[in-house]
Amino acid sequence: MNRKKLLSGSFLLIMAIHIVVFTSIGLFTTRGWRLLIIFLAGLAVMTAAGWLLRLYYKRRLRKQGKDA
Fold first, then answer.
1. Is the pLDDT of residue 68 over 60?
2. Are 20 and 12 in contact (CB under 8 A)?
3. In CA terms, which of 1, 17, 30, 34 is 20 to 30 Å from 7?
4. What DSSP line would sit under 18-62, residue for residue?
């Protein structure tokens, strides 16, 4: 099995579990809302950073292909 697919799949599974757990804690306790907001803010920042890095990498590859 491809190592990159395995790591990506396990990461997505772990993130899904965290989302479910933090959402349930946030919904059923008053102190859990803070954890939920912190987690979702961090998730949004990480997702945006990953998307921007991927975009930069693709543009850089295109630029290098034209110059070579």
1. no
2. no
3. 34
4. HHHHHHHHHHH-STHHHHHHHHHHHHHHHHHHHHHHHHHHHHHHH
